[in-house]
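step=predict obj=Membrane-bound lytic murein transglycosylase B n=416
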Amino acid sequence: MDILRLILTKTTRFKVLERAFLLSSLLFFCTFELAANQQFSQCVSDLKFQARQQGISESTVNQVLGKAKHLSRVIELDRRQPEFTQTFAGYFNARITDERVRNGRNQLNKNIQLLEKIYQETGIPPKYLVSFWGLETNYGGYFGSWSVPDSLTTLACDQRRSAYFTQELLNALRIIDAGDITAERMVGSWAGAMGHMQFMPSTFLSYAKDADGDGRRDLWGSIEDAMTSAANFLLRMGWNPDFEWGQEVKLPSDFDYSLAGHHHKRSLRSWVALGITPTSGPGLLPSDQQASLLVPAGHQGPAFLVTQNFHVIMRWNRSEFYALSVGHLADRIAGEPALSQQPPPDDIKITREQVRQLQKDLHTLGIDAGDADGVMGPQTRTAISLYQQKTQRIADGHLDSTLLTAIRTAASSLSH
């Protein structure tokens, strides 16, 4: 009986402690939530003041910011970075599919009158506008489902990139204030990109056009407005109607890959003299037109000569992989064949932490790979190429598992 009483007493004490713990946890959570809500409310109040100071109407300020919601999921997405870095093969093959090419050709034919009209006015060929459209929203199939005002308010009230997103929020309010779109219809990506072509509010204000004459720059409901706005952006960024974006080329067997990279520009005359030939179509004209050579998957993958229009595409999105995908998808939509040299299968899945270590290792070896930010960008690939040159390898700037191990081993030997 004493043993039973002891067990019951201990069980009762455990339950009391458990309940106390749960109560204290709940109290902490509620206190944290209350503080967070108060902080968000104060931030929204400050944003209202800024908006009024910049001439945004009281009705828009109250209508939008008066109903602003904090979206915790947006903060999660802003903080999240993919564990593995993207390879060209993975990026390209996921985006350039037979279905996307077929749908692009259908959209090109369906909207050909509009696209030809824009071409006559701007010099931007139809195939490029359709290609951007396909890569940004799958030809208008998905704009994103986030409330842009709520997303931007949430990000503006977060310290990480507050200044940038505060400005984008104020620009979004200006768009609503001008009557181009209602706050309810202003939906897009979690980061605030909007409409058929996924313009950020600042881009919208600078380049969006009311092409259909209804008094609104409607990049959600008007394909005419969206395509004309995209063409205006490309034109203002310096698109040259005399050039294509570039083309796939074949390299001679003894090619010096240290000449690759979008910062190494030469005339087509110079590239022709080095024995570079196109994989399809007429031969390269030996002219003074400047071009760069890219080998995004290394010497075993495809090679591309790219013109200044390629760099204009990169003003839309700073990724070389993106710009190559836009250019090639445009060509496929226009009836050109698929790549003659497909990207080889990836032999390595490298994490961002491994890229950071690689950048540190290259620095240890006396090669500048830029900041150890975990991003496999042009500067890091150039640094890899320099290491390859120093160690008598093919200097294509491409990383595989063998090279990654070699760089780590070399750096470790110097550190000890």
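step=describe
The first helix runs from residue 2 to 53.
step=end
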